[in-house]
Amino acid sequence: MTLSLLTVLCLIFVSGACIGSFLHVCIYRIPRNISIVFPGSACPACGHSLPFYVNIPILSFVVLKGRCLFCRHPISWQYVMVECITGMLAMMTYLRFGGTWEAIVWFAFAATLVVVSGIDLSFRIIPDRISIPGILIFGCLAWAVLDRPLTSIVSGVLAGGGILYGVALVYYLIRRTEGMGGGDIKLLAMIGAATGVTGVLFTLFAGSLAGTGAGIAAMVKNRQTDRQMQIPFGPFLSAGALVYLFFGDILIDWYFFQVLS
Q1: Residue 208 near residue 235 (C-beta atoms within 8 A)
Q2: Which of 36, 159, 203, 221 is the most exposed place for a label (fewest CB within 10 A)?
Q3: Are 137 and 195 in contact (CB under 8 A)?
Q4: 172 versus 164: which is more confidently predicted?
Q5: pLDDT-based confidence at 100, cuts 50/70/90?
């Protein structure tokens, strides 16, 4: 890796971390129906407004040792985690797609999945105000920027929403209780708008595999045998979509040419 590329990646990481700081604002405020623009950043414990010099992504958390400058209340690790993850996603997007409009679309897609995952982990919901507009926005961007045909976009939306809706319907008919939230259905439809049918199938397989593993690990850790333990599925769908975005072609080729050959 050349020095110039390393410098570019560092700048991209810093820019991504700054965007991640805003994404955490979205994660915190959207479920609470608070504007993501006004008021400015403030400590959730004491309510003191935060000047820019104590609101620098990652660095402020380290310098302040994870505590508010004014009330010394602990700052959640979620802040710095979202900033680091978004910074890493920004670098990975650049390495995968270069400095192109395509890269900007995919980074916006990845950032949206970060917000969805953060909200689902904290509140067990996926807001319609994100997923429904996301279907239209990423569908339009896939057509205008990614040069995908409308048939691929529509089929991806129908596959994403239809598969999970069918699973939820069958589960309800058998168990007479909801086993799949409507937010997950709309999220996978949004993923389908951006990635198509192949992306939906990969996302669903990878997300289900990861979710099952996490569920088993949680049951073992908590020494529970309750099969109805609720684990949010949105983060696993998001992770599956990101794996497809960055490594899908490699993994699919490996599967067909190495495993099935």
Answers
A1: no
A2: 221
A3: no
A4: 164
A5: very high
C-alpha to C-alpha distance for 87 and 16, rounded to whole angstroms: 4
Confidence class of residue 187 from pLDDT cuts 50, 70 and 90?
very high
Which range has the worst mean pLDDT, 93-97, 135-139, 156-160, 249-253?
Answer: 249-253
Q: What 3 state SS string does 118-175 have?
A: HHHHHHCCCCHHHHHHHHHHHHHHHHHCCCCCHHHHHHHHHHHHHHHHHHHHHHHHHH
Spell 38-72 as b/e; 16+ CB within 10 A means b.
eeebebeeeeeeeeeebbbbbebbeeeeeebbeee
Pair (10, 55) in one structural domain: yes
Domain count across the chain: 2
Same domain, 36 and 117: no
Q: What b/e readout covers 191-213, taking b as 16+ CB neighbours within 10 angstroms?
A: bbbbbbbbbbbbbbebbeebbee
Q: What is the pTM of this model?
A: 0.92
Domain holding 204, by residue range, is 101-261
